[in-house]
TrEMBL record:
GO terms for molecular function: nucleoside triphosphate diphosphatase activity. This is Maf-like protein. It comes from the Eukaryota. Keywords: Hydrolase. It comes from Tetrabaena socialis.
Amino acid sequence: MRSIFFPSPVPPPLGPASPASTVGAMLATDLASGRTAEGVERSYIHFRPIPADVRHQLVEEGEVFYCAGGLMVEHPLLEPHIERLEGSQCSIMGLGKQLLMRLLLQAAGV
């Protein structure tokens, strides 16, 4: 039976042709004053070509199926193939701490 995730046993190649990206949006509200602050953060992951055996191993492990978009920049198999990150690792993994702190301070009027 074919995988529902990939049309072939090995996932399609990842590489430098187009970076993977994430977009995060947040809204912070100071409940006492009603003041709000909002922001959007985009991060990019530029991968070097990832060998087929590494891609196959990631699929066999199965962890990538439990990550939004399969982006596991912290995974030991993927780390050597990351050329560079634009943005922060925490924003790629889910919640951009710098944006959150800026919005909390802004909503608080600081």
